[in-house]
Design goal:
This protein has about 450 residues and is mostly helical. It folds into two domains: about 15-185, no CATH class; about 185-415, no CATH class. The protein has helices at about 15-45, 55-70, 90-110, 115-135, 145-150, 155-170, 170-175, 180-185, 190-225, 230-240, 240-255, 255-270, 310-330, 330-340, 345-375, 390-415, and strands at about 5, 10, 75, 80-85, 140-145, 270-275, 280, 285, 385-390. A three-stranded antiparallel sheet has the order 4-3-5. A two-stranded antiparallel ribbon has the order 1-2. A hairpin with a 5-residue loop joins strand 1 (about 5) and strand 2 (about 10). Residues about 420-425 and about 425-440 have low confidence and may be disordered.
Length: about 450
């Protein structure tokens, strides 16, 4: 191994990439652990867990650490065991962003096609951290199988690592050593056109989902503002104290992304559940007794008069995606159909319907996965069914986005405000002949 000069001129061996990855992601595990330990022990010192010892509070913090990484917990309250599978997505963003930062550091330290060495060390040490936490923090009331504790936390960590490394490298070519441009150059022209079309459809469907989620976040903010008095009433009834109020606020912020995705499911028409046998949707609202969580005070107890108008949100998001696809100018499927079907109105109709169907399927799949991640249960009583109805959310979102994409693609040319050809300024034709006298030299 080549010797390098340190900052003071001393020769030393460079740190192996696998060891650097292990050290960087050990720091990620420790930072996330501290961020969980501080509020848990703060609540314990304030008397929030009067029946727990310090060791019991530490095990509770370890269980919360695993839950933030998406690991389901097996809970038992003297009866049949249940599964605590409601992942607070806001808390999951913390290890994800730290892994993203660690991935950038590893990419800066790696040559092309060497990132795997740092990734092996990083994921290896994180698997050991998850395995140890699951083994130490399991109790008769709350337990985690050791294999799940080792493997499940690797999912958000691997996603953050790859995303950060990709951003730092700037391209997959520099990251993994595969020249995508050269690979595409060896493909046929039809293959390149098909790839461009499918990539544009994928991005259009993703744009529709992002627009739907953004509008749902605005809708949730409005509902929180409208029902703010009800939320304050629940807080006052709990008498949480200063430390309890802080812990309650942190917990509600951690599940806020879940609530945004539940609102997106509401705008699709599928709605969501707040317990077994309950439903909240634009068509019907049937709620039982809700837990005393202040943020749930914003849930409507009956169907609002404007509820059906929220169904327009995915449609408008689809229109935005269809307009974007028109501006992208990658509708090669329409070009292919136009060469085979001479009747232009028929080929254009078929290609537009195909575009709406493909973008709708992409949006439905993405929204279905998001709804599945945001839902779950706490494994006790009625609260074993929390969150959106996944299959129905995916199907309705796909249909509504497909309609919107077709409308946006059709209306797009008028939104561009391009003047018709007959309205363009005319130009005098340029003569193709040259007078011989014009070529004579001047005196």
């Amino acid at each position: 191994m080549k010797m390098t000069l340190g900052p003071r001129g001393h020769r030393h061996l460079p740190m192996p990439l696998w060891l650097q990855g292990a050290i960087v992601f050990l720091q990620v595990a420790l930072v996330t652990a501290v961020l969980v330990l501080v509020p848990v022990f703060g609540a314990w010192l304030a008397g929030g867990f009067a029946d727990r010892s310090a060791a019991s509070a530490a095990r509770l913090a370890g269980q919360v650490w695993l839950l933030l990484h998406g690991t389901p917990l097996t809970v038992s309250d003297g009866g049949l065991p249940g599964v605590f599978s409601l992942i607070p997505l806001g808390g999951t963003l913390i290890p994800l962003l730290l892994a993203w930062r660690g991935g950038r550091r590893l990419a800066r330290a790696s040559y092309t096609d060497q990132l795997w060495q740092g990734a092996v060390g990083a994921l290896g040490v994180y698997a050991l951290a998850g395995m140890g936490t699951a083994y130490i923090c399991s109790t008769p009331e709350v337990s985690v199988p050791t294999p799940l504790g080792a493997l499940v936390p690797l999912l958000p960590i691997a996603i953050g690592l790859v995303a950060g490394a990709r951003q730092e490298a700037g391209s997959w070519t520099r990251l993994v050593g595969v020249d995508a441009a050269e690979w595409l150059a060896r493909r046929s022209q039809r293959s390149r056109w098909a790839g461009s079309y499918l990539w544009s459809v994928l991005r259009a469907g993703t744009l529709a989902v992002l627009a739907t989620v953004a509008a749902s976040a605005v809708l949730l903010t409005v509902m929180l503002a409208v029902h703010w008095a009800d939320i304050i009433t629940i807080v006052e009834a709990l008498h949480p104290g200063a430390v309890g109020a802080a812990a309650l606020t942190v917990g509600q912020l951690a599940v806020m992304p879940n609530l945004v995705l539940w609102t997106a499911s509401y705008t699709s028409g599928a709605g969501f559940a707040l317990g077994t046998g309950t439903t909240v949707s634009p068509f019907a609202t049937d709620l039982g007794a809700l837990p005393a969580v202040p943020v749930l005070g914003a849930v409507p107890t009956s169907t609002p008069v404007f509820a059906l108008l929220t169904l327009l949100i995915p449609v408008v998001a689809g229109m935005l995606a269809g307009w974007w696809f028109l501006r992208e100018a990658e509708n090669h499927f329409d070009d292919w159909l136009a060469l085979r079907i001479r009747v232009r109105w028929l080929s254009a109709t078929l290609s537009t319907l195909a575009l709406g169907l493909a973008a709708g399927v992409v949006a439905g799949l993405l929204m279905g996965v998001s709804a599945w991640l945001s839902g779950g249960g706490i494994g006790l009583g009625r609260l074993t069914d929390l969150g959106p109805h996944v299959a129905l959310t995916a199907a309705l979102t796909a249909a509504e986005v497909a309609i919107g994409v077709v409308l946006g693609y059709v209306v797009g040319p008028w939104l561009e405000r391009q003047p018709p050809l007959e309205d363009l300024p005319s130009r005098e034709p340029v003569s193709a002949t040259v007078d011989v006298e014009d070529l004579q030299p001047t005196s």
